[in-house]
Amino acid sequence: VELDESNFAAEVGAVPGLAVVEFYAPWCRTCRSVAPVFAREVRRMGAEARYERVRFFKVNFKENPRLAMRERVFALPAVHFY
């Protein structure tokens, strides 16, 4: 699920367990190389019942720079756990 400033707090706050948020940018070469690994783990964990309280999100750094700075993202890619 893609997040932005308008839905970040509501979506992350509504998670009953762990919210995992990946901050990325389309121009980031490392982000593009990490993306398939992140997607594979999201699919794997989504298929297992023991991870039902974990939700995964993405934030585009380029489109949401104020949100990224507020969440103290200074390097990409970044994965935050809430």
UniProtKB/TrEMBL annotation:
Cross-referenced InterPro entries: Thioredoxin-like_sf, Thioredoxin_domain
Residues covered by the Thioredoxin domain: 2-82
Single GO biological process annotation from the record: cell redox homeostasis
Source domain of life: Eukaryota
Database matches in SUPFAM superfamilies: Thioredoxin-like
Family affiliation: Belongs to the thioredoxin family.
Protein name: Thioredoxin domain-containing protein
Organism in which the protein naturally occurs: Emiliania huxleyi (Coccolithophore)
